[in-house]
């Protein structure tokens, strides 16, 4: 027979739920205040503005040149996702299947960009990029964002590679599959759940990356999060509603791409799919 939970256990669970609910409530209230402000005409010391309008969104679109900023954001995000996959997945396979001198040191090197705050290595990296002429360019922003994302893909993909029975690869080679055909026709379908999960996280991480993008971006290579920072702290007088409208656009852009990605990748099914493939 199972004993009922003790009073202390129930109190701890209740306190935990209250803390989570308080956090979620404050987060929703913060988002709601920004959204309401982005549509408000003016505030007169009341809970709601005197009126509502959409003109702040048109003003933000023109004032902050959001068309160019959004285009740059998508170019950076997709370039980083594609390059991280092309570089990280083969590297993860090599790290999982091969033993060589210095492997542990190399793994530690991969961990550093994920453990160390980006600002600590971002400043010297930005200095090098500006000295080589890549600072302030779109290519420089992409390279800077690859520093933490490629190791992230490698570390995420290594367990997925290790779950694949090496005898599957040996059987494919017995039947004449070369390295390229083995990787494309045998390994890629088995690794697809892990690849999609890793690239989904890379996409969200890149859109939200501020420090490295801020240090390496120029006037024509700013992503949305950096442009939002400049709109808040740059010199000059700007309407609060216009800045809030830009923040809402940033939230919606991130949410839209996350929803699209989750349409094709379900995190709750990744482990199940991997286990099913392993069983077969």
Summarize this structure as a short list of keywords or feature phrases.
78% helix, transmembrane helix, mainly alpha, cell inner membrane, 280 residues, membrane, 12 helices, MetI-like_sf, transport
Task: Describe the model.
It comes from Roseomonas elaeocarpi. It is a multi-pass membrane protein. It is found in: Cell inner membrane; Cell membrane. Belongs to the binding-protein-dependent transport system permease family. The protein is built from 12 helices and no strands. Helix 2 crosses helix 11 and helix 3 packs parallel to helix 6. With 280 residues, the protein is mainly α. The longest helix has 33 residues. The chain starts with 6 loop residues before the first helix and ends with a helix. The radius of gyration is 24 Å and the shape is globular.
SS-based structural class? mainly alpha
The low-confidence runs, each spanning 5 or more residues with pLDDT under 50, are 270-275
- The CA-CA distance between the termini, in Å, is 38 Å
Number of separate helices = 12
Order of helices and strands: HHHHHHHHHHHH
